[in-house]
Amino acid sequence: MEKIHFSTQLWVGDDALKELETIQGKKIFVVTDPFIVESGLSKEITSYLSANEYLIFSDIVPDPPIEKVVAGIKAMNRFGANVIVAIGGGSAIDAAKAMKYFGKRTLKTEIETFIAIPTTSGTGSEVTNFAVITVPETATKYPLVTDEIQPDIAILDTNLVMSVPPKITADTGMDVLTHVLEAYVSTEANLVADAFAEKVVKLVFDNLEKAYRDGTDRQARANMHLASCMAGMAFNLTSLGLNHGIAHAAGARLHVPHGRMNGILLPTVIEYNADLAHYTADNYAAKRYTALANCLGESTKNPRMGVQNLIRAVKQLRQKLDMPATLTEFGLPRETISQEQDAIALAALADGCTSTNPRRASLEDVKKIIETIS
């Protein structure tokens, strides 16, 4: 038996932020990053919270380290917060999730309502029970997975993503694509997640390049923002796979932006999972990848052709987004990659996302993937 539930309420539309005015008499802890504060975006959003006390905590950096989470927990406790509003990309929302979870366990902080307001279209963190926290001392990213960190409300407002720079649009969009490709071939895949994934794949290929080339294309921005949310709903049901397992490990040690790392890995991981060299009639991943390729307008029942069509489509999209195909093309020296290869491979195998990959990977398998993308 499967239990499927979506506990996050979505507020969607150009006037969605105005609904924040219904919150009154609360002590709101706002978690965001310095850019959101400097750009004036946090001021715009907090203007709807005037019937409350609020404190802005903006000491958030990409791949939030545990010390930032600890600092946030202490500030939240001193303030006496009972509501959290997280504004930003995955880093701000993930940090807020960790603050909520660990704050309850360390300082007995009780949060009544957790609201996530994404300002990028990529992580889907606003609707998931996932967070990723970095421990710098060991250069390790740890997934935190529990329903306790699922936001109660997610606000999707296209206005908040209209000014996202092209490079971040590309990185976050490739993360969306990776989320649904991994959800679709996950060992925990189900029909509900499949429906989200099949729709999102088409949305990404129809809209991501448009949003990248012309950031003022409102429809493309809106479609990618919704696609990101739907992708989050998909992988929240199924978990992810080896692509994210390696991306977490390599991102922590090589400091490659998460979406870009996913984009570098994706064609190679698809090829690995499909295992066409040893193809048999019951090859689960190859058949699933073929079904997704057919969502893009292809029409084949031949898994070999279907997988090749999907890999070709991903590579072409990556090229159109001016994204690197290898780690050296990204700018990393081969020596650096070689030095970190074993540690990355070990960390990837230990990553929680890897456990639902359709093909069980060995240490040598992962090292070979890293060599291929070097």
UniProtKB/TrEMBL annotation:
Residues 169-372 form the Fe-containing alcohol dehydrogenase-like C-terminal domain. Pfam families: ADH_Fe_C, Fe-ADH. InterPro entries: ADH_Fe/GldA, ADH_Fe_C, ADH_Fe_CS, Alcohol_dehydrogenase_Fe. GO terms for molecular function: alcohol dehydrogenase (NAD+) activity; metal ion binding. Keywords: Oxidoreductase. Residues 8-158 form the Alcohol dehydrogenase iron-type/glycerol dehydrogenase GldA domain. It comes from the Bacteria. Signal peptide: none annotated. This is Alcohol dehydrogenase, iron-dependent. It comes from Enterococcus canis.
